[in-house]
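Journal club prep — side note

Before the paper discussion, L.F. wants everyone to see what a predicted structure for a comparable chain looks like in C-alpha cell form. Sequence:
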Amino acid sequence: MDLLLLVIAALTFLGFFSLGFIHSPWKHKEPTSLYILRTATNLLANYIRLVPGIPTRMHFTDHYFIKREIADRETGKPKQIESLVFYCNEEGAEPCSKTFSILSQKLAAHMEPYLPNNVYRGYDFIITQIGEGFLKDWNVQPIKRPE
C-alpha cells in the first residue's frame, strides 16, 4: 500500500509537468488524470492475479519454469518448489504484456497437456479460482482460437 501511495504521489508530481506548472519536455495528448492512471496501472499491474469466483480469459505466448522458495504449510520452514510461468499477451480480449505464475500443482496439472510444442498458443484459457486459501481449486476452460 505504501508503494502504491508513493507511485501515485510521484506520478501526480509528474502530472504537474503536463499541466504547465513546471516546464516539461514531454507532451501528452490525454488529460493528466488519465495519463497518471494509465502509467500507474502499467507500473503496478505486470502480472495477473486471479480473483476468487471471477473468470479470467487469457492467451499465452510462451512459458518457463522457475524455482521459488516458499514456506512449508506444515513445518513453516522454507522449501523450494517449481513454478510454471506464462507470458500473457491478451487478458479479457485486451492486449497486454503480463505474466501469469502458477505455484499450485493442481492448476499446473490442468495446463500440463498444453505445454508440449507450445500447444497452448492455439487456445485462450478461461481460468476461475474457486475458494481461497489452501482449499482453493480452479476451473480451466480451454477455448480453441480461430486460425
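L.F.'s comment for the group: Strands lie at 56-71, 78-91, 94-102, 123-130, 137-144. Keep this in mind when we get to the figures.
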